Amino acid sequence: MTTATPSPTPRTRLSPAQRRTQLLELGFRLLATHSLDELSIDLLAEEAGISRGLMYHYFGGKQGFYEAVVQHAADDLYARTAPPDHGEPMERLLASLAGYVDYVVANHAGYRSLVKAATGGNDNLRAIYDTTFAALADRFFTADPGGLVIPDTPAVRLLIHAWQAMVEDLVLTWCDSPAGLSREDLLQVITTSLPALIDTLPG
């Protein structure tokens, strides 16, 4: 009896937009273990099994690739830190910050390199960084979905900007040296520090 040879599974042909998204997701995954400087066109082409020429076709070069991956990572960060639609304000803040901490832990090398790149003089990368954190701050002033609905004043925005910088530095430092703080301890500190700061403002 002759056994029929199984037909090969047909390969799905991706559209240019789908292929570009696939490459960005691969670059984003590589950021979990590589710095931005290590994330070269050659590395991604090798990992994706495509030619360097195709990479240049989609991104125009190394800098275009960097900016596209950073934007993709920023969009992912914004999505993963979305607070739930319902619950008490502090519960929603805690959930949002838990998403942030877990994101940084899972993508530590990449996130640190993104911060470094954003402060390294590249205007486009800096703009992506600033725009993302401004959007994160805006969540505090919206009632739907999941905003904290705190007073929108210049002084409050100034404090939130400083608090965001503190949280970022604290979480990155904690990743390197936890100093005896558990994840829950860290979340408690950064969550309760925001309303404590706002309470110090003159009425």
TrEMBL record:
Keywords: DNA-binding. The keyword Acyltransferase does not apply. This is AcrR family transcriptional regulator. GO terms for molecular function: DNA-binding transcription factor activity; transcription cis-regulatory region binding. It comes from Nocardioides kongjuensis. Residues 17-77 form the HTH tetR-type domain. PANTHER family: HTH-TYPE TRANSCRIPTIONAL REGULATOR RUTR, TRANSCRIPTIONAL REGULATORY PROTEIN (PROBABLY TETR-FAMILY)-RELATED. InterPro entries: Homeodomain-like_sf, HTH-type_TetR-like_transc_reg, HTH_TetR, Tet_transcr_reg_TetR-rel_C_sf. Signal peptide: none annotated. Residues 40-59 bind DNA.
